[in-house]
Amino acid sequence: MSPATVPALKLNNGVDMPALGLGVFQTPPEDTMAAVATALDDGYRLIDTAAAYGNEREVGEAIRRSGLDRSDVFVETKVWISDYGYDATSHAFEKSAAKLGIDQVDLLLLHQPLPSRFDLTVDAYKALETLLGDGKVRAIGISNFMPEQLDGLLQRTEVVPAVNQIELHPYFTQADAVAANDAHDILTQAWSPIGGITAYRGQVQTSTLNDSTIVGVADKHAKSPAQVMLRWHLQHGRSVIPKSVRPQRIAENFDVFDFELTADDMAALDGLDTGVRGGPEPDSITLEEYGRPIPEA
Length: 297
Description:
Blueprint: E1 8-10, E2 16-18, E3 22-23, H1 29-42, E4 46-48, H2 56-66, E5 74-79, H3 86-100, E6 105-110, H4 118-133, E7 137-143, H5 147-156, E8 163-167, H6 175-183, E9 187-191, H7 196-201, H8 212-221, H9 225-235, E10 239-240, H10 247-254, H11 263-270, H12 287-290
C-alpha cells in the first residue's frame, strides 16, 4: 500500500502529521529496530518514541537504514519528568536528538504533567517553546494532560500545544479531555488505541479484542477488531499510534484505509466507555515515584 494513502492531519501551526503511526512503548531496544524497519517498509511514516522508552537510538538507526529521506518520516518523542525545568528540558532535547541521530524533531512532547511540581512542568514547556522558535522542533505538545492541567499550562505559556497524546480506546474515551483539546484546536492522539493497556493491567473482564460489539462490527466489514478500533479513531479525526513487534500485526494495523464505519458502527463503539483508566492517574505522577535518570547520548 502506498504511503500516500495515509491521510495527513494538519496541526494548529500548519505542520502536517500522518494520522497513523507506529508506537514503540514497552518495545525492548533489541526488538525496536526490526519493528520500525517493518513498519517503514509497510508504508508507515510516523514513529512515536520517548526518552523514557530507552529505544530512541534504535528508532533512529532503523530510519537511517530504511533509505528513506529524513523529511519523509515524522519523528515524535517525549521528555521525561526527570528532565523537567528549562535548562534540563533543553538538554533533554539534545539527548534525544543525539540518540535519534537527527538535527530536528518533528514533534516533541512533555510526557506527563507533574502536578506536585507544576512550576517545573511550565518551565519545561517554555523550553519547548524556545526549541520551536529556534527551529529545532517543528511542533510541540503534551501527553496525559487533563483539562485542568491543560488550563494551568495555557495560562502560563504562549504557544498552544499542537498535540495532546492521551490514553484513548473504546473502553476509555475521555470525552472531557478530548473536548478540552478540541476547544483549543489541539489534536488528540490516542495511545493504547486498541485498548491493550486494559488487558495488561487486568482492569476489565473483557478485552476490547474480544468485545462482542467490536467483533460484530469487525465481522460485518470482514476486518479484525483491531482494525475496526483504529478506523473508529481515524473517523473521529484522531491520530493513532498502535504498537506491535509482530510483522503480521504491524501490517494489519496499517490496512485500515479501504473501508468506512457507518454512523451506527461509530455510535456502537462510542457507547462502550467504562470510565476505567488503564494507565496511571495523571494526578498521581510524582518525581519521587516515577522519576528516573535519562542517560546521556
